[in-house]
Amino acid sequence: MERLKTALSYILIVVIILSLAVVLILSVGSDVPKSFMSFFRGIFGSLYGFSEVLVRATPLILAGLGVSIGFRTGFINIGAEGQIYWGAIAVTTTAYLFPGLPALIAIPLGIVAGFVAGGIWALIPGYLKARFGISEVINTIMFNYIAINILGILVRTVLKDPEYPLPMSSKLPNGFIFPLLMYPTRLHLGFLIALIAMVLVYVLMWKSSPGYKLRVVGLNQRASLCSGIPVKKYIVFSSLLSGGFAGIAGVGEIAGIHYKLLEGFSPGFGYVAIIVALLGKNNPFGVAAAGLGIAALQVGSLSMQRQAGVPASISWIIMGSIVLLILARSTLLTFFAEKEKEKKV
Amino acid sequence: MSTNSILLMKDIDKYFFGKAANDKVSLEVKPGEIHALLGENGAGKTTLMNILYGIYQRDGGRITWKGEEIHFDSPREAIDNRIGMVHQHFMLVPTLTVSQNITLGLKSEGHPFPNRRSIDEKIRELLSAYDVHISPTDKVSSLSVGGEQWVEIIKLLYRNAELLILDEPTAVLTPQETKRLFKVLEKLRQEGHSVIIITHRIPEVLEITDRVTILRDGRNVATVHTSETGSVELSHYMIGRELKTISRTPNTVCPHEEGLGLDELAVEENGRNVLGPLSLSVRKGEMIGIAGVDGNGQKYLAEAVLGVRDCSAGKVRLLGGDASSASIQQRKDMGLGYIAEDRQNDALIMDMDMRENVLLRMYSKREYVKSGFIKYANVDETAKEMIDTYNIKTAGIGKPVRYLSGGNQQKLILARELAGSPPVIIAFHPTRGLDIGATEFVRQKLLERRASGSSILLISADLDEIFALSDRIAVLFHGKIMAVLENDGNVDVNYLGRLMAGEAAESGSDSRRVE
Amino acid sequence: MIETGLIAALTAFLSATLRMAMPLTLAGLGETFSEKSGILNIGLEAIMLSGAFFSFIIAFLTQSVLLGVCAGIAGGIAVSSIHAYLSIYCKVNQTIAGLALNFLIIGLTSFLFLIVFGKSTTLPECPVTPKIPIPILSRIPVVGTVLFNQDLFVYFTFIAIFLAWFFIHRTEWGVSLHAVGENPKAADSAGLNVFRIRYFSTIANGFFGGLAGSYLTLGLLGFFMENITSGKGYIALVVVILGRRNPPGILLAALVVGAAEALQFRMQTAGIPVPSQLFTMFPYVITVLVLFLAMGKSREPSALGIPYIRSKR
What we know:
The complex is a heterotrimer.
Chain A: H1 2-27, H2 32-44, H3 47-73, H4 80-97, H5 103-132, H6 136-154, H7 189-207, H8 209-219, H9 221-226, H10 231-258, H11 269-279, H12 284-308, H13 314-327, H14 329-344
Helix pairs in contact in A: 1-13, 1-14, 2-3, 2-12, 3-7, 3-8, 3-10, 3-11, 3-12, 4-5, 4-6, 4-10, 4-11, 5-6, 5-10, 7-8, 7-10, 7-12, 8-10, 11-12, 11-13
Chain B: E1 7-16, E2 19-29, E3 34-38, H1 45-52, E4 60-65, E5 68-69, H2 75-80, E6 83-86, H3 98-103, H4 116-129, H5 145-158, E7 163-167, H6 175-190, E8 194-199, H7 202-208, E9 211-216, E10 219-225, H8 231-239, E11 258-269, E12 272-283, E13 287-291, H9 298-306, E14 313-318, E15 321-322, H10 328-334, E16 336-339, H11 343-347, H12 354-359, E17 369-370, E18 373-374, H13 376-389, H14 406-417, E19 424-428, H15 436-451, E20 455-459, H16 463-469, E21 472-477, E22 480-486, H17 493-500
Parallel strand pairs in B: 3-8, 3-9, 6-7, 7-8, 13-20, 13-21, 16-19, 19-20
Antiparallel strand pairs in B: 1-2, 1-4, 4-5, 9-10, 11-12, 11-14, 14-15, 17-18, 21-22
Helix pairs in contact in B: 14-15
Chain C: H1 2-36, H2 44-62, H3 65-89, H4 94-117, E1 131-133, H5 143-148, E2 149-151, H6 152-170, H7 172-182, H8 184-189, H9 194-221, H10 232-242, H11 247-269, H12 277-280, H13 282-293
Antiparallel strand pairs in C: 1-2
Helix pairs in contact in C: 1-6, 1-9, 1-10, 1-11, 2-3, 2-4, 2-9, 2-10, 3-4, 3-9, 6-7, 10-11, 10-13, 11-13
């Protein structure tokens, strides 16, 4: 009975989302079947399209894993976007400082640099939360805006490519560039790294003692304290990990896709990562699945925009609505339960 | 049913998650009567009253109030019908004044711009009529627990309640304050009010009430005139047998060996002294009971010993060694067991399963964690052993502990904290909210630990518990120890009550002081 | 002559500061009601964005500022009502509901904007509120010009600050609001309708937040673009904390951030040869600093962010 209700509520959510999509498509005067067709053709219609889903999913999974670690520990990290930016800045700076390194050293170095930079950018609000109790939600958001502007300054000054008039860095040296996995698609090493990170996070959170403590802190700080876990340290630790994975996402975008640092390389990956973490229920495998799903939604929406003229911002509306509906899902259930009760009476 | 009843609750049903909390419960109250609702924790007394007061909605049955059938959807309607309730956990807003709390939710004259001054005057009269020394302009946060209870009662009287429901009103009072409360209840009865007292204490029922309705497991057991019954019969009604008297084997104390020592220990909060300086030495095989009204520093004391709170001065000694600068983890590794006051917030992770809750005290041990990785097989084994030894009723080792009953949660904590036979134990309200079976079990376990040489600091608001278990009794008032009494069966309850109320120990009774 | 130049510059700066502070103040007032009752709405950004969008679109279509403002308020209330429904009735995590709303509204407003205007290169403009100098008072140098040569929004905000202060501190309603946010169980037991009071305060949040949004488009800018609020909703949350959930305090806090924003614009136009991003991030840095300095000065309502469940055992 309980299972049936759960299933029913999910079906209801799907129905609501689909009808919402239909309404939105109709409102721009597009053809509904054609739009849906182009949506799915964009995802499954070609190898390239499908590989684009994986390409998009890469930063979403990495940053989503980071956000999920924070959420598990009670560090509400809304700052993945800024941490992604710092990962990107770090890999570019590293490449700039050590241009001649071979790939075998350069790529791991870039990843570590991105992890550290993203981690530190998250650690500051993490420390402020743990030590002074200052809301990390607001701080991480402010840090996003600050990071974006810092990147803007860097690509206009020290990291600027003197050859070009546009605000961007010069191309990364070859050693730092992620190899492609499936030429001629854009699928790159980053996707593998995301999958490895998924397993790593699982082992960390569910098999190791530090991960156990992180989860305990997230569920009940007071009991953690009473049991002897240094709660503040673990919150800071979680913020470091959280930002670190987001930082790697930034590394992947620069070293795997753009090959140079430029403004606006992330169309809100860090914000979408929050949705990915929520939909994935902060479970690493769930996060990967949600990352793929959301990436497919975005790739499909882009295709829908190209072929059927439906603005791609529809994907944001759909994502927001899915989260809201899933939040309200249990009440959708009580709605049914009450109906049933009325019938009995 | 007699026609002259003011309240008649008939065949009330209430289910929580499919389990009956009230199963065809009936209650009748007459005008000008003090009526006890007796039963142990979890018998369904409070649920029944919450239904009457409009907090819960009943699943079946009828309620007649002053001859009319009623159904309250919210406390508002109960208040409008002149029914008032003092909950066990007071329903006051600490940041508001006494007078604002009393008039909260009322449409006073001039609403929404009432004349505070004239309201205050009216409240002041009411307060002095019942001899309560509180000013209407005081912030509730500045009052003692006893003071808060008076505000709750005055709140009901200000609202002209004809029926007052008091949920365990004496739980937070000293024996003297209890006497005063009962005097006021007498006065209310004379004025024609009806009173329902929810309690699990039989002596109180016999002392103050006219009739008593006994509940057990959510069902009616009996309703009797107090004058026609006695404590043996009531205890039979309440738990189906006589209360076991706990036998404390004397002479387990090693006179010279100390387990836990406090040396001029003091705690400050926001620059204000909230505990001590106090000194206390718990020897091996000894249980010291800390008696006192809630909120007199018990929490600070427990937290300072555990290490959750830094002490501003003084020392904590564990097994003779200075532990003042040791971390919580180190203290636990030295052999400190901590039975927390608040099971759900301090001791358990409600959304984790049993084994992960067991792990909460084991994660520093090699047996369970090796080079950072958890050996779940070993944790499982230990958890299963605990389930067997402590007879914990669980739906499964992998189910969140949220689904355990309060008694089984406490057994789990006990099993975990007493594992490895810790030489020092802090038991903070160890039986609060438990039914009698679980209470007896917990007390038995504590006595077993004492018999095998542990030093136990028992902090409890239940004087009966303190008397039954402790070798010595230390009275805590405003963070200071008023006296330490040998619990030799000759301790005068009234004297203890005076100490709990902060009336300094008389010089004449110095002989009782043991240091 | 230099002196008159200085005075003019000062007057312009203070005037800009005041105007920049207005949307933060209004949004902060709304959030104060909400938080005092125990509802933490991170979706303030969405409320403002919705207010900004709908006020712009209606003002553009009808050429009426008044109708635009009404539409902005309605847009704000619509968003806050969704949040209220989720947090009061569905009892969900209020922070997450707020964040999800932010995503939803960013998408929705840019989607609708594209529907109405298509992809045009020029930004469509709408009428803005005119300045209404108050006779005599506005002639006072500096102070008079800053305070009394403003648009109706500014005057209204000052009245709103006073009314909100009066409501919270001088009426029985304010006591009820406080009680519901501090101890909803006690409030319920005393006969207050916790849910109704919370719904009321969230609607107030939508009202003021929507108004704040319409001030952005109809008072300050005269146009709309994607994500026009750019974090102002979050900054307003900080203003609420720094202002200790007290209306006059909120104005002061908003002025601090407003000054940072006004300064940013002045510096950008001053022609200093550094990237403008250095100045753009100024208000955000100030906000972080302000949050740090406000630490521990403000006590949160005890039940903030915690859903009230009546028959919880």
